[in-house]
From TrEMBL:
<protein>
    <submittedName>
        <fullName>DUF3817 domain-containing protein</fullName>
    </submittedName>
</protein>
<dbReference type="InterPro" id="IPR023845">
    <property type="entry name" value="DUF3817_TM"/>
</dbReference>
<feature type="transmembrane region" description="Helical">
    <location>
        <begin position="20"/>
        <end position="40"/>
    </location>
</feature>
<keyword id="KW-0812">Transmembrane</keyword>
<dbReference type="Pfam" id="PF12823">
    <property type="entry name" value="DUF3817"/>
</dbReference>
<feature type="transmembrane region" description="Helical">
    <location>
        <begin position="101"/>
        <end position="120"/>
    </location>
</feature>
<keyword id="KW-0472">Membrane</keyword>
<feature type="domain" description="DUF3817">
    <location>
        <begin position="17"/>
        <end position="126"/>
    </location>
</feature>
<keyword id="KW-1133">Transmembrane helix</keyword>
<keyword id="KW-1003">Cell membrane</keyword>
<feature type="transmembrane region" description="Helical">
    <location>
        <begin position="60"/>
        <end position="89"/>
    </location>
</feature>
Amino acid sequence: MALAPKMKDFPRIRGALKFYQVASIITGVMLLLLCVEMLLKYTPIGVELELGGPRGFLAFVPSGTTVAVNLSTGVLIAHGWFYVVYLFSDFRLWSLMRWPFTRFIVIALGGVIPFLSFFLEARVAREVKTYLASREAEAATPQPVEASN
């Protein structure tokens, strides 16, 4: 029998869910930007995004020729660091909800498989909110008392 979350942890679960939802959306957007950057750099197009270089404020330059701020590398680094934040939010929600470890792994994949974080965010949020509402309704219902002799 799996352990259920404690009623006293419900406010913390709601906070962890909100943090997970924000982290999931940001990580998903960063992953999509990273995919676009990889396509631009490693296909025959072969360009990178440069900020503040001699070609203007924001320009596509041939790969390996950036002389100013390389935004392509910036996207890569930002996604990597934010994925760590996403994993932390996943771990926090997973541990408070007392889910099996496989659930943690599936949610963690949302940060490395394009578009998956958006689908998981919606599904996980719906499941958690439904679970919390049903448990609170169950707790609010008066339990029958047995008479003893």
